[in-house]
Amino acid sequence: MLKIAWSSKYAHPLPAGHRFPMEKYELLPEQLLYEGTIAQRNLFEPGALDRGWIIGPHEEAYLRKLTELTLSKSEIRKTGFPLSASLVDREIHIMDGSVQACLFALEHGIAMNIAGGTHHAFSDRGEGFCLLNDIGISANYLIKNQLAKKVLVVDLDVHQGNGTAEIFKDEKAVFTFSMHGAANYPLHKEKSDLDVPLPDKVGDEFYIKTLKENLPRLIDQVEPDFIIYQCGVDVLSTDKLGRLGLSIEGCKARDRMVLEMAHQDEIPMMCCMGGGYAEKISHIIEAHANTYRLAQEIFF
Fold this sequence. Notes:
An eight-stranded parallel beta sheet has the order 2-1-3-8-7-4-5-6, sandwiched between helices. The protein starts with a strand and ends with a helix. The protein has helices at about 25-35, 50-55, 60-65, 75-80, 85-110, 135-145, 160-165, 205-220, 250-265, 280-300; strands at about 5, 45, 110-115, 150-155, 175-180, 195-200, 225-230, 270. It is about 40% helix and about 10% strand.
């Protein structure tokens, strides 16, 4: 059964006037339930992840400042959110959602988190709508509990997974792969184990060809026994914060390739949603919903 982490906390942590980019976390499960892609039994509600699993990928001093709401104005500004106890609580629940989804993936082959993909959070700071890094925390959880020997992070958000790259820069058990817009945020890129920067406005054909040239080879070389897939849909041509040119069908073809490779090679996979900022919310929901539709089609 496809298991999906979702909580009402995902959608309502911010005061009026600061909803962007939160709307999709409420609308996406509604759409999936309405169309019958999932049922209520597919959803599970995460709790608050034990702080001990946050420390390691994140520095204890940073976690303390975050939870005590003592970040500086500059540090708060870099996150893109007004800091509040409810926002931090939301983030800690998202971390548990991704960890629990990893455990479900070990059992069922794949599991999802409707939030997560917070790849701009560094070990000592938050950036770009990310306070804590669920990819870093989940991969660390798998390795430390000997549930995986080698984790491959496949980050296909339009923005480089800079925080994830920094967290794992000296960790050989985690291989970080980021295929992203070369000229997009962040201005300063960290060094992933493999970075594939893409020029502005590339369309479906170039994108899929480039992914096909890299991902199968990576799986053969890295030999992962777990994949964490950051499947942001800000690669769409209509995205306000992206600079690439994919169609919704091209984004779906990207997801099909990644999911089919994991399924064929019997590699458990956890998918976290990442970015999506198109002018029309319907574009965001349709592109994200395709990932769930494909998971049901390919794995179940």
